[in-house]
Structure to design on (428 residues):
């Protein structure tokens, strides 16, 4: 009944490899991976009237390049607008302080992200600064609502017509 | 069991399910006693797990690669190729990793276990153990069952890791997707508890089911060369059916 070293070594290596794979999956492919890199970031704030479907950990992009992510989203009670905290990678510390932030949608059905349009100011945003110029998420429901109330493309003059009369009319050929 | 029951395949199926359930209880009961034979369990983990690594890693790599290729094509229709990393990771962790690993292990290790125990039965080795006051359930059946339960989730993890590697290889290196988008979208969506751990629970159950069926088929194999051959075939057939059925049921509960 002497233990055979090859079995013992093989079993041990296999179990270690299995747990190494589990640790790799848990730390590299889940949201845990985002938390580790947070030491080399700085935060910016931006207020939006409406953030649409923006969620925490959504990407922040300049010119389409990801430079950070959305850290948290909170409602500012007095002003009744959304305070979005962005955590930006330290290496992108030269964003002009008159840059504007807007919420875009990637693709037609994709997730929403914060896009920053760089300004021309010689001074840069620092940790904790707030971006003044923001543009809310475009809400397709609002656009459709406006379109229906305005009576569609053919009758531009009937702004006062109620939406209920425009809706059945659009069903007729 | 009277001849009437034996002739009716439907009743016989029910009887063998019942036998399998009773056998499961017996194996569980023999688990504490089998801890004395931990070296045997260790050897079975080596056989079921470590010896399956090559096939599991190779298959994981190819499954990840083909997933990335197919999903890239599908996602490009909607202009959503940025979600490739997310979709590859979620389909691997939640579904393909546990299921394909279980099917592979049933084919590679389950058949060997059935044939081994079946031949032990045919050559009266199990009876000889009983004569020597060694409980064959505790020395033969339980270690193999336990080894399946231990090895399967670890193998599924290795499969998943290789699948992610293969998906990254095709998506980023070959198809030219942005590396940051691939990882960023994946890490933003994949949840540790909901996705990775649920896949692990699945593969633990699959490990138990596959090794139970393999051990049971071997234990009840008719002691002829033909009987062992049929039992080995039945291990693969029943394991595959039960894995996919359990997968459906568990997914219904978990999502």
């Amino acid at each position: 009944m002497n233990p055979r070293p090859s079995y013992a070594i093989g079993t041990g290596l296999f179990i270690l490899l299995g747990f190494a794979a589990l640790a790799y999956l848990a730390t590299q492919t889940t949201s845990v991976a985002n938390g580790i890199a947070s030491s080399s970031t700085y935060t910016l704030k931006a207020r939006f009237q409406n953030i649409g479907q923006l969620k925490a950990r959504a990407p922040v992009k300049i010119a389409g390049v990801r430079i950070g992510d959305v850290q948290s989203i909170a409602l500012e009670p007095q002003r009744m607008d959304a305070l979005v905290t962005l955590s930006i990678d330290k290496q992108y510390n030269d964003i002009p302080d008159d840059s504007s932030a807007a919420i875009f949608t990637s693709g037609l059905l994709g997730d929403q992200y914060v896009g920053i349009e760089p300004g021309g100011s010689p001074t840069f945003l620092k940790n904790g600064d707030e971006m003044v110029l923001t543009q809310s998420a475009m809400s397709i429901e609002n656009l459709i609502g406006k379109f229906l109330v305005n009576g569609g493309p053919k009758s531009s003059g009937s702004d006062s017509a109620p939406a209920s009369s425009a809706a059945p009319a659009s069903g007729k050929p | 069991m009277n001849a009437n029951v034996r002739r009716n395949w439907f009743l016989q199926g029910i009887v063998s399910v019942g036998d399998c359930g009773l056998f499961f209880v017996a194996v569980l009961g023999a688990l504490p006693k089998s801890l004395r034979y931990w070296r045997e369990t260790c050897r079975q983990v080596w056989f079921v797990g470590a010896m399956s690594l090559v096939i599991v890693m190779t298959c994981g790599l190819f499954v990840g690669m083909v997933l990335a290729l197919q999903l890239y094509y599908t996602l490009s229709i909607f202009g959503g190729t940025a979600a490739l990393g997310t979709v590859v990771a979620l389909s691997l962790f939640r579904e393909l990793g546990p299921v394909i690993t279980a099917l592979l292990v049933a084919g590679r290790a389950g058949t060997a276990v059935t044939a081994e125990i079946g031949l032990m039965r045919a050559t009266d080795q199990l009876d000889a153990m009983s004569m020597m006051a060694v409980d064959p359930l505790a020395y033969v059946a339980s270690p193999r069952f336990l080894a399946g339960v231990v090895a399967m989730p670890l193998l599924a993890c290795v499969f998943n890791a290789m699948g992610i590697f293969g998906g990254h290889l095709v998506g980023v290196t070959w198809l030219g997707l942005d590396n940051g988008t691939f990882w960023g979208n994946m890490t933003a969506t994949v949840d540790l508890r909901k996705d990775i751990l649920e896949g692990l629970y699945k593969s633990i159950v699959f490990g138990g089911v596959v090794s139970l069926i393999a051990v049971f088929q071997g234990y009840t194999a008719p002691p002829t060369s033909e009987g062992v051959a049929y039992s080995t075939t039945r291990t693969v057939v029943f394991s595959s059916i039960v894995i996919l059925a359990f997968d459906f049921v568990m997914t219904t509960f978990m999502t």
Chain B touches chain A through 40 residues (CB under 8 Å).
